[in-house]
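Can't paste images in this forum, so I'm doing it all in text. The chain is below; anyone willing to post the predicted structure tokens underneath?
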Amino acid sequence: MKQHSKELIEATANAIKDHFIPKNADEKSFSFHFTIPPSSNYKVSYEKDAKGKWSFVAFEADEGKD
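Text version of the structure:
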């Protein structure tokens, strides 16, 4: 599996994160999985800051998905 740059992973995640933001306003974090074609899978995590803005905090390669 090709390892993509943190910048590409973060940019891709930021482009689609709005589809995964929790509906419950009390939530302080969320994560989701996505694929960069053809077969690079990642899990990304976001946390809400004091102003209510969601920030990218971490990613990991998710090699368990094929």
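The radius of gyration is 12 Å. Residues 15 and 23 are 18 Å apart (CA to CA).
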